[in-house]
Amino acid sequence: MTERFNSTAASGESPPFSPTGETILQLKAEDPRAKVAIKARVDLAADWETVAILDRALPDNRFARLPKFPHLKLEIIRNVDGKLVSVRDDS
What we know:
mainly beta
């Protein structure tokens, strides 16, 4: 597994990454209400759009399975400052 994002901040985002195929992402968060948006775009000129949300409070939303997107990034929607939030993928 590859760690794509790791932070203890209340806000922030990962650098963009380009999966080689379908991607499965998993959220790990100390804050029980932490949320991370998964954003995608089809090329460098396109706007970033939210395609899924990882949500610590909802067990079914701690994972996301995505088709191949050329560009992905992760953005904290909610996290308590000082609490660890991380996202890993299956690559």
